[in-house]
Amino acid sequence: MQGDTLVVVDFYTDWCGPCKLMYPQLVALSQERTDVRFVKLNCNKTNKELGMQLQIRVAPTFHLYRNGVKVADMTGAKMDKLLDLINTHSPKK
Questions:
Q1: Alpha carbon of residue 89 to chain centroid
Q2: Sign, Cα dihedral of 88, 32, 59, 3
Q3: Is 30 exposed, middle or buried (0-12, 13-18, 19+ CB in 10 A)?
Q4: Which CATH architecture has domain 2-88?
Q5: Which of 16, 18, 63, 75 could join 59 in a cystine, given CB atoms 3.0 to 4.6 angstroms apart?
Q6: Per the residue annotation, which of 6, 8, 9, 19 is the catalytic one?
Q7: Domains of the chain: which residue ranges?
């Protein structure tokens, strides 16, 4: 069911070194985990107000959503922690 798909939002900035390090790993993960949707949001000047509303203070920050509800979040370039959150909150097949 599409509404039950886990969505991972990556809040990043162009000048964030850890964000750049995570990018290739996220691309690989998105190809491996076709049951999860990955979205990136650049927290630049254009999106600054949205970032403030979502309380994004550190890049990278990841929010995980299911059925339009945030189920988890984390900050930092910690792929192992992100994988744990994805596995915890992915729909069971």
A1: 13
A2: negative
A3: middle
A4: 3-Layer(aba) Sandwich (3.40)
A5: 16
A6: 19
A7: 2-88
Question: Left, alpha or beta for 73 (phi > 0: left; psi -120 to 50: alpha)?
Answer: beta
Question: What is the C-alpha to C-alpha distance for residues 39 and 62, in angstroms, rounded to an integer?
Answer: 10
Type and span of the H or E element at 28: helix 17-32
Query: Mean pLDDT across the stretch 73-85?
Result: 96
CA distance linking residue 35 with residue 24, whole number of Å: 19
For 66-87, what is the mean pLDDT? 95
3-state secondary structure of 47: helix
Q: Is 43 a catalytic residue?
A: no
For residue 2, list its beta bridge partners: none
| pLDDT on residue 19 | 94
Of the residues 6, 16, 22, 59, which is catalytic? 16
Which residue matches tokens 């596995």? 87
DSSP E strand boundaries for 1-93: 6-12, 36-42, 61-66, 69-75
